[in-house]
Amino acid sequence: AFQPCADVYIKLGGVQNYSKYRRELNLSSGIAKSEFVIGDTKFCRETFAPYNNPSILVHRIAADKPGMLSGTAELATKHKIAVIKNFDNVLGLDVSVAPNAVKFAVRASVNLVGQSAKMKFVDGKMEFSGADTIEIRITAATNVKSWKELSNENPAEKALQNLSVLKNIGYDNLKKSHTEAFGKLFNRVSI
User: Fold this and answer.
1) FRET partner for 114 with CA separation of 20 to 30 A, picked from 101, 106, 128, 135?
2) Sign (positive/negative) of CA torsion 172, 58, 133, 30?
3) Global pTM?
4) Residue 92 forms beta bridges with which residues?
């Protein structure tokens, strides 16, 4: 049976009075996108799982005016045995389904862009403000070896390894390589 891993909650401040909301799932690029306007600022969210590294999910929110992004980001789970482990710019959650059973770790690196961008941890959440862009790269790892066997590997270490693979690849390059690789498979035919 599959187990739910975790939820990632991103709450943006000041998004009550939005207009021109639009969303799409582009099957040619493999990117989910939504856009909306608040006042005279346009916001764009994009999400994709890089085709060349499907253990990562990339979520980016950008504003077309500087310093307009503020809010919180946090990880949560329904499992009872869970420990929040936030450090540096990484949200972390270590979970056990039951004692001596399936364990998994979720890690989400949060990167802010902007001259006045700031982040800090408060009550298990990451608060951010003054950002032009926020990018979150999410991964998870488990100690499951097969349907009947658990490994002694540390899921937290594996999750951090997953993140480190793409650490030095910028968003635009990551998106471009994903779109090219994804397109080779999914754009072979058209209707």
Assistant:
1) 106
2) positive
3) 0.89
4) 107
